[in-house]
Amino acid sequence: MSGESVFNLIEPEVEVPSPRPRHNSKYSGNRAVPPTASTFGIHGTSAVVANMGGEVTEPSIHPAKKPTGIFGRVTGPMVKPSEFLKKNEGPLTASRGAPTVNKTKFLKSAKDAAKLKDDIPSRHDKPIMGLKTEKNYVVANAVESALAIPSKCIPPPENRAVDRADFGKVPAYLEEVKEEIKERHALVERIKAAQREAEERWSELSAEELEGLRQGLQRRWDALNSEYQSRGFSKLQTPLQKAHHEALGKELNAVEFAMHKLSRSHVFVYDDQR
Question: How high is the mean pLDDT of the chain?
Answer without folding.
Answer: 78
